[in-house]
Design a protein that fits this description.
The complex is a heterotrimer of chains A (551), B (124) and C (216).
Chain A: H1 13-16, H2 26-30, H3 35-63, H4 74-93, H5 96-109, H6 118-140, H7 154-158, H8 163-190, H9 203-235, H10 248-282, H11 289-302, H12 318-346, H13 355-378, H14 380-386, H15 390-420, H16 426-453, H17 467-497
Chain B: H1 6-34, H2 47-60, H3 68-94, H4 109-114
Helix pairs in contact in B: 1-2
Chain C: H1 15-50, H2 52-59, H3 64-89, H4 93-124, H5 141-177, H6 187-212
Helix pairs in contact in C: 1-2, 1-5, 1-6, 2-5, 3-4, 3-6, 4-5, 5-6
Classes of the chains: A mainly alpha (551), B mainly alpha (124), C mainly alpha (216).
Chain lengths: 551, 124, 216
């Protein structure tokens, strides 16, 4: 060992015990710098936010059971859908996979012992919690009624809600995102195991890298936007006020410059997770690895070029609208390529319908529907009719919920054995996946029709002829809620009573499966050396099934 | 500079020389600003400023030293800034803005907004 | 090797590896700052396009002498700190301190000039955009107020970054005095230098936009 490595100290406990048992005090959890423990801290927070946002959604759907609005108050309704949007976007979807699965799996997958900046990682959790606390405080002392998009002049001049406080909370949470993205990028650049060249990295890593580029470059623009909105609200300066020479569309440009990449921040991790699950449960190498890789990178770049499609009817210039429409069609191409890659991987594969695979398959179908309907709203003429209707709501929920949440649950189940050292009950997991698929479609497919028929979004009441579809949608949401509560129940059960997981329960490739379940603090006792590409599955005839026996 | 190794001394001299160059660029930028350049071209006055920024990055921050990825990050930052400014300007620069009645003297946003007399936008 | 130097995290191969990671990380952080200030620049570009005469009228009210002196102060401060890094690389902690003092003083002078002289002067001249009465009236008032919104927000944010920078330089000086840096390990010194010079770069962007472009 050279003098240069002389002061790298690895405590014995970091090697011979799982990370779950390396210190059991509260302090050892709250002051941990272990990426795995930080991932667990985030899991708890993310889960709480998910159910909070879900509860708001349940109340929204409850209200929409009758045309007059069951809850009675449009003000309350506005605050509910704002709470739902704010919590789900910034405190669930954007962080979900990166801070839980990303934090846990990335170092394992690249053969590293931790992230590049472990203390920054812990700090980012505290920032997230602080931002969350401030935002929740705003939402609970009376809430915000502007929608998660905070459009001016409602947010800056007319809203009586707690806009400023909510903006501060989101501002703080944004720095958490930037810190996470920065950590991931540097980690992937510098901490890869020997032999792990860029083209040997699993697609999940490429997806997380692309996501991180979005996090670090787009979120600062959100920060300055929220700051300016805050200043305008508090000091009545006129940055977005046309009466003083300002421009309300300037807010929308700045806001969507972040928020469009934000939706890609939400879905890219989902792409990554699905790209890991499918080869493992089809027992085949991924089809068109480089296409998947470069599609992720292209999405990361192109996603910055399309934000104007949220503003087609806001009063932007026609020339700008045409340009953004063309660019929006372009950005769909790499996503479509990915779908073909996944289907190509399944083709002639030896498919096993374990729960992660069910979620991944659901993702492919639902994401495709969501993506294709995105093309409809990207067409200028169609968008004039469809914008601000339930069509758009259905479009993004197919991607975010049908796609991203399915992928999150898929990844959760896939890596659950690695993270907790326990197997979840397979039968219940499959039931939950199927119930989710059914409940999701029942909730959101009617909304495509409603939007097409002209039902506007963000209205507490609606024309009576829309009631049947609304009731169907609300009924679906109860099934969806059950599908989300099921995993909560059986995953917690599995922590206590689940079968102990072997090192590689799925017989999957990937460095994360080359270490015990759950891993020791130091991840790898000896640094792994990589000599082959990812997804090195043998031909189907020779490849054993993912598990020895189903439960 | 008494007990200085020759290499360190050379680096300090290089730093001071680059400072002088940056100052000269600053002087040029300042002088350009005093010239009667028409309104549309006045942003070009910033060009020497961009050169000054490059100088600070190259000589004070040593962007050329260190791993390649550092230069990639610097280029990426500038590229994305460019996208924001240029693609973002597409709409404001090609849009037709309709005149709004000026705000009353109090300058309050609420008053101004209420007294706006906007002509409706005819199409998208 | 100094025994009080920070130990290397166990995810790194060696100290040099950790240094490169820190360097890369700091540059990436500065890239995020480019986008942060970039959003403000975008507001300026849009505002200037919509209110050309008002922006020029407002720009003429800025204190050119103060902006120019501040530019010189900041550039010289950057030079001083960069020189300090050269000395530190050669292992000379004492000379690093000797360079930090002028860097600190010049940075402090910038802050004093901007917030102690220029801002109060602007406010006294009724150039504060949120105030009831504003120096420029008539048709140009709205746009001129907008210019000064940009002025106060951008120089305010820049000043906040300067204050953080000053605190960081003081932190470096304290650590250097405790003998924590050596020729083999002085990563924080380089990190703070990058940040300090970057804050200078932000100023070099703001200076012409505020003081020079509109002064036709």
């Amino acid at each position: 060992m050279s003098a240069e490595t002389a002061d790298i100290k690895i405590p014995a406990a970091a090697i011979d015990r799982s990370y779950l048992h390396d210190g059991t005090s509260l302090k050892s959890w709250l002051l941990t710098t272990d990426h795995k423990r930080i991932a667990i801290l985030y899991f708890a927070s993310i889960t709480a936010f998910f159910f909070l946002g879900g509860a708001a959604a349940a109340l929204v759907r409850l209200n929409l059971v009758t045309p007059q609005g069951l809850l009675g108050s449009p003000e309350t309704y506005n605050r509910l859908f704002t709470l739902h949007g704010v919590v789900m976007v910034w405190f669930f979807l954007v962080p979900a996979v990166p801070v839980t699965l990303g934090n846990f799996i990335i170092p394992l997958m690249i053969g590293a012992r931790d992230l590049a900046f472990p203390r920054l990682n812990l700090f980012s959790w505290y920032l997230f919690m602080l931002g969350g606390a401030i935002t929740l405080w705003a939402l609970f002392i009376g809430g915000v009624d502007t929608g998660w998009t905070f459009y001016t002049p409602l947010s800056t001049a007319y809203s009586k809600g707690h806009v400023a406080l909510a903006a501060v909370g989101i501002f703080v949470a944004g720095f958490s995102s930037i810190a996470t993205g920065l950590n991931f990028i540097i980690t992937i650049h510098r901490l890869r195991a020997p032999g792990l060249t860029w083209y040997r990295l699993p697609v999940f890593i490429w997806s997380m890298y692309s996501l991180s580029v979005l996090l670090v470059l787009a979120t600062p623009v959100l920060a300055i936007t929220l700051l300016l909105m805050l200043l305008e609200r508090l000091f009545h300066i006129g940055v977005f006020d046309p009466a003083v020479g300002g421009d309300p569309l300037l807010f929308q440009h700045l806001f969507w410059f972040y928020s469009h990449p934000a939706v890609y921040m939400m879905i890219l991790p989902g792409f990554g997770v699905v790209s890991e699950i499918i080869p493992a449960f089809a027992r085949r190498p991924i089809f068109g690895y480089k296409f998947l890789v470069w599609a992720s990178v292209t999405i990361a770049v192109l996603s910055f070029f399309v934000w104007g499609h949220h503003m087609f009817v806001a009063g932007t210039s026609v020339y700008s609208a045409v340009l953004f429409s063309i660019l929006s069609y372009l950005v769909a191409v790499p996503s479509a390529i990915k779908v073909f890659n996944w289907l190509g991987t399944l083709h002639k594969g030896y498919i096993h319908f374990d729960a992660p695979m069910l979620y991944a398959l659901g993702f492919i179908g639902l994401f495709t529907i969501g993506g294709v309907t995105g093309l409809w709203v990207a067409a200028l003429a169609a968008d004039v009719h469809l914008t601000q209707t339930y069509f758009v709501v259905a479009h993004f929920h197919y991607i975010m919920v049908g796609g991203m949440v399915s992928a999150y649950f898929g990844g959760l189940h896939y890596w659950w054995p690695k993270i907790t050292g326990r197997m979840y009950p397979e039968a219940w997991a499959r039931i939950a996946a199927l119930v989710m698929f059914i409940g999701f479609n029942l909730t959101f497919f009617p909304q495509f029709i409603l939007g097409y028929l002209g039902m506007p979004r963000r209205y507490a009441t609606y024309a009576p002829e829309f009631q049947v579809l609304n009731v169907l949608s609300s009924a679906g949401s109860t099934i969806l809620a059950a599908a989300y509560l099921l995993p909560l129940a059986y995953l917690i059960w599995s922590l206590l009573h689940g079968k102990r997981a072997p090192q590689n329960p799925w017989r999957a490739t990937g460095l994360e499966w080359q270490t015990p379940s759950p891993p020791p603090t130091v991840n790898f006792i000896a640094t792994p050396h990589v000599t082959q590409g990812p997804y090195a599955y043998a031909p189907p005839a020779e490849e054993p099934p993912p598990r020895e026996a189903h439960e | 500079m008494d007990s200085l190794q020759p290499e360190a001394r050379a680096q300090i001299v290089r730093l001071v020389k680059s400072w002088v160059w940056i100052m000269c660029l600053g002087a040029i930028e300042f002088s350009l600003a005093l010239l009667p350049v028409p309104h549309t071209f006045r942003p070009l006055i910033m060009l020497p400023g961009l050169a000054m920024i490059a100088g600070v990055a190259m000589f004070f921050m040593e962007v050329n030293r260190g791993p390649t990825i550092v230069r990639a990050f610097a280029v990426a930052a500038l590229f994305w800034l460019f996208v924001l400014l240029v693609l973002g300007s597409c709409d404001p620069f090609t849009r037709t803005d309709y005149k709004v009645a000026p705000a009353p003297a109090s300058g309050s946003a609420l008053d101004g907004a209420v007294s706006m007399a906007i002509m409706p936008v005819s199409d998208m | 090797m100094n025994s009080t130097a920070a130990s290397v995290g166990f995810q790194y191969r060696n100290r040099a590896d950790q240094h490169e990671a820190a360097l890369t990380g700091m540059w990436l952080f500065l890239a995020t700052e480019v986008l942060f200030f970039g959003g403000l620049l975008f507001c300026f570009v849009v505002g200037r396009h919509a209110n050309p005469l008002a922006f020029d009228a407002a720009a003429r009210e800025t204190a050119l002498w103060a902006g120019t002196v501040n530019t010189v102060l900041l550039l010289t401060s950057s030079l001083a700190y960069a020189a300090g890094i050269v000395f530190m690389r050669a292992g000379n902690s004492r000379r690093l301190m000797h360079c930090c003092w002028p860097a600190l003083a010049l940075g402090g002078a910038f802050i004093a000039l901007k917030f102690g002289v220029e801002w109060p002067g602007d406010i006294a001249q009724h150039l504060f955009p949120a105030a009831a009465s504003f120096k420029i009236g008539g048709a140009l008032e709205g746009g001129a107020r907008l210019f000064f919104v940009f002025y106060f927000v951008s120089t305010g944010l820049h000043g906040l970054h300067m204050l953080i920078g000053v605190a960081l330089v003081i932190w470096i000086m304290l650590r250097a005095r405790r003998g924590e840096f050596s020729a083999h390990y002085h990563t924080p010194v380089v990190m703070v230098g990058l940040y300090w010079s970057f804050v200078d770069i932000v100023w070099l962007t703001l200076y012409p936009m505020i003081y020079l472009v509109g002064r036709g």
